[in-house]
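so my prof wants the structure for this chain in the tokens format not the other one, which i didnt know existed until like an hour ago. anyway here's the sequence
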Amino acid sequence: MTRFARPLTALLATAAAASALTAAAPAASAGASAGTADAAKPTIVLVHGAFADASSWNGVAERLQRRGYTVIASANPLRGLADDAAATAALLKSVKGPVVLAGHSYGGAVITNAARGNDAVKALVYVAAFIPEQGESAADLAGKYPGSTLGETLREVPLPGGGTDLYVRQDRFRKQFAHDVPARDAKLMAAAQRPVTAAALNEPSGAPAWKDVASWALIPTGDKNIPPASLRFMAERAGARAAVEVEGASHAVLVSRPDAVADLIERAAAGRR
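here's what i got, hopefully its the right format
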């Protein structure tokens, strides 16, 4: 076990022993999608989490496009929080007009940093996501309350230049991440997952944009990566205008319940509680 991986796995394994952290992605077409949108509507920018790619948003993006929104599902590098946030911030600067920025899981920490100082971002939507305060890491928040079993499912891959990539073991992927996703789809999600560095999950957040930008949160009550108690705590602390609970849904709620996720993003776009 490398120096970078140890803090995360130790923290999450401890939380699991006391008693769900990131997303999974379907192996659908990846990347950004943009439709012809009503000029009055904001652009929706979606940021995926670890063990996933932009295609994890496919079901959500399709629904939002049908409702007339331009949607961009960004490619989150998953290399380090500051670097990932900088890449997202650069993308945001290329978008004309108002933006609603949504993040899933680790993507929540990314949008918390990427939106800072950008007046075009009118709303933040956290989907089974980390909402860190300054100085907190994803690993800190995953272990704040008991219930996460992610740590014991991780597979470590040492990197040539130092550090460690983390994957979820494929034989445990569905039970851990996506118990409400059909088995065939979850198997493909496990095969197509992208790794995150252990360093990214242990990197402290900077000053949070949610102190200046209105936020909305979605909490799947069957999450085994980020405990629902932690999701509720973060949403309340951030003063989320709405915190919608999806009963029994897994951490992969954006895949299993895209209607609920799209509905919340549209509420945020309209500024509705």
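also thought this was worth mentioning. The chain is about 35% helix and 15% strand.
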